[in-house]
Design brief:
Elements lengths: L1 E6 L2 E5 L4 E5 L8 E4 L2 E5 L4 E2 L8 E11 L3 E6 L7 E6 L2 E11 L9 H14 L11 H9 L5 H5 L3 H6 L7 H12 L1
Antiparallel strand pairs: 1-2, 1-5, 3-10, 4-7, 5-6, 7-10, 8-9
């Protein structure tokens, strides 16, 4: 069985066990990824999508992040007092091994971009702690690591709680500002 999948603006005909060099994907070596844009499934009963085959997917394992071959663009203009220019480029690629082709029943896993946006959605449900005077991105990150993600949590801190937080020194002004911001 084979499949024709689309990724990085290109189409690839793949079978289980194939190793592909595709445009760079946001995945680390060893991760399993899923390509949901399957244009065709081949085999005993070929299925052609219109434009995609519903429920079909191709699972692959990321082997490595690599760079492609060097491409050199050399421009030379003829005649006297002419100019020359050389520009080189190496495309970033991801090396993947196709593990299986799912004709149907593929899980609708979130693509990598949506998976990375999930923590951002979690942060949206929490308050933006940088609204407190004196709290920048680094301090907000330390507060989040200490478990303080909302104005209400900071407003409820007592002096003993403030002394117990070792990740960052919480200022009393932050508690007062958090009380105001938690009200509305």
């Amino acid at each position: 069985m084979f499949a024709v999948l689309k990724t990085g603006g290109k189409q690839y005909k793949v079978q289980a066990g194939d190793v592909l060099r595709v445009e760079k994907l946001a995945a680390d070596a060893g991760e399993t990824i899923q390509f949901d844009e399957v244009l065709m499934l081949g085999g005993d009963a070929p299925v052609v999508g219109a434009p995609l085959v519903e429920g079909a997917a191709v699972k692959a394992e990321v082997i490595d992040q690599i760079k492609g071959d060097k491409v050199i663009n050399f421009v030379k203009r003829r005649r006297k007092h002419s100019s020359k220019r050389t520009v080189g480029h190496r495309q970033k690629l991801t090396l993947v091994r196709i593990t299986e082709i799912l004709a149907s029943g593929a899980t609708k896993a979130a693509p990598k971009a949506a998976a990375k946006a999930a923590p951002a959605a979690k942060a949206e449900s929490a308050d933006d702690l940088t609204q407190l005077t004196g709290v920048g991105p680094a301090a907000a990150k330390k507060l989040n690591e200490a478990g303080l993600t909302s104005f209400a949590q900071i407003a409820a801190l007592s002096e003993d709680d403030i002394a117990g937080i070792e990740a960052i020194k919480v200022k009393p002004e932050w508690v007062e500002q958090a009380k105001e911001l938690a009200k509305g």
